[in-house]
Amino acid sequence: MWYQKGFKELELKDFYQIVHLRLETLVVEQTRIYNDLDDVDFRAIHLFQKDEQGNIDGYARIFERGQTVHFGRVAVAKDSRGKGLGKAIVEKILEVCEQKFPGRTIEIEAQEQVVGLYEKLGFQTVSEPFILASTPHVKMIYPK
């Protein structure tokens, strides 16, 4: 089941599971050293899915920056990988963006290893690779 919540709507257990999933996936597994928590969390839409046991196994956050909509911190629990959940998260993000921010351009900073997934879903690369939090990224947009 999918959930969309603002920061103040998150239950404490859900917030803990989100932070744990993000840290495990984006910091520990990728051996990156950076502060995952930032002020964006306060204004973001937190999109997540829970498995049959009620544990969060997929997550992303959606937020506005200027006139564009962004998303990031996309994470899938290790036990849920290889089942299409990453693609499902991005499709759900696009659905939420269309509902909440119709007609707005979506811009992301995508890690190079997932560019192919985003391209299959209609995103276009608009920059040369750059390093962000010790990892190669590119800017991508999803046209209006």
From TrEMBL:
Organism superkingdom: Bacteria
Domain N-acetyltransferase: 5-144
Gene3D superfamilies reported for this sequence: 3.40.630.30
InterPro entries: Acyl_CoA_acyltransferase (IPR016181), GNAT_dom (IPR000182), GNPNAT1-like (IPR039143)
Entry-linked Pfam families: Acetyltransf_10
GO MF annotation terms: glucosamine 6-phosphate N-acetyltransferase activity
Keyword DNA repair included in the entry's annotation: no
UniProt keyword list: Transferase
Full protein name: GNAT family N-acetyltransferase
Organism name: Streptococcus rubneri
